[in-house]
Amino acid sequence: MADRFFPNDLPPFVAETPSHTPTPHTLTSLLSLPYQSLASKLQAAALHLKQSVVSETWGSGGNCVKDYTLYTGVLGTAYLVFKAYQVTKNLDDLNLCLKIVEACDSASENSSRVTFICGRAGVCALGAVIAKHAGDERLLDYYLRQFKKIELPRDLPYEVLYGRAGYLWACSFLNKHIDKDTIQTTHMRPIVEEVITAGRQLAPKGRCPLMYEWHGKKYWGAAHGLAGIMNVLMDMELKPDEVEDVKGTLRYMIKNRFLSGNYPSSDGNESDRLVHWCHGAPGVTLTLVKAAEVFGDKEFSQAAEEAGEVVWKSGLLRRVGICHGVSGNTYVFLSLYRLTGNKEYLYKAKGFSCFLLDRAQKLITEGKMHGGDRPYSLFEGLGGMAYTFLDMIDPQVARFPGYEL
Ligand SMILES: [Zn+2]
């Protein structure tokens, strides 16, 4: 596995053709299927994978929960099963989600982690949304009360996976899926101010308005750095000078990206290697798409499209998951498709997902692709691939888990 990614030898475009005769199961034949036929195949594969994910991570449900998180734990399984419910309306799936989240609730009760992806906010927020879908007012109220009991430690970092931004994202998730004032601005505003103040203090004067550190590094990516924090801030009510700082920070990143078009994983890092959601162009693309949607500025949509070109060229990673794998990179094209309506991006999303459908499990078995340290998890493993397949069914509603609202 010398190279980090497979050379992208996908055809630049394959037209969809109504097929009357069964074609051999090849990548090109998958790409030529009418969209609905491909969506059916992806759905069938996703539901099959979901069964494996459930039995490997949850089993009979009697085991105690060791890792409750969305990232590598069973909350990720609940998120996948909830997505399956939204597609099929199978009530067994909804009931299973409720059981899994209940176990995560017990397991995270004394956890000091507070974010959506790696902490208790994810458990309570997802629990509330699932309870709403189940029409269980009492349970909805319970999870909202639990969410509101979460206290942020004073030494909390600022990034998405473990920090303030990751908690604020959970607030936005509730406001989108329950009611716009479920978590009021008066609750979020002091946290937003802490994020802005800290960013201004660490910013290199005259160069970039905001900067943050996590474990001693000034990260740029979606998981631990600027892209992730800016992505969350754009959903907050900001003052005009704060809006300018967010825009200025994104402009600084665009101006200082690599010649290849990729983005450094941290400030001043000259190693142009990572094309992941967590580090590099893919996560930055999603943030730039958000900036284009929120601000409407052409400079951000153009930069998002340029970052998308890097992902097409170097994003067919030798890994499967959404954090640093082909599944996550597929969302770059779904996001650009939503922004631009350009069918070329839908084709590219099809290209990456058909590559996974056709080859991922074989490549993993042969040791040519890494199946993830947690091979059934949402962020590192096959859970993420199944989720991506389900999101391909209706691209307009596709959203990167825990990142796109
Ligand atoms: Zn990653």
Automatic annotation (TrEMBL):
Biological process (GO) annotations held by this record are: carbohydrate metabolic process; peptide modification
MF terms (GO), sorted A to Z:
metal ion binding
Q: Sorted alphabetically, which CDD domains does this protein's record hold? A: euk_LANCL
* GO cellular component labels: plasma membrane
Q: A Pfam family matched by this chain, by name?
A: LANC_like
List ligand-binding residues for Zn(2+): 278, 323-324
* InterPro entries xrefs: 6hp_glycosidase-like_sf (IPR012341), LANC-like (IPR007822), LanC-like_prot_euk (IPR020464)
Q: Which domain of life is it from?
A: Eukaryota
Keywords recorded for this protein, A-Z = Metal-binding, Zinc
Belongs to which family? Answer: Belongs to the LanC-like protein family.
Q: Which PANTHER family match?
A: LANC-LIKE PROTEIN, LANC-LIKE PROTEIN 3
Name under which the protein is recorded: LanC-like protein GCR2
This protein's species is Vicia faba
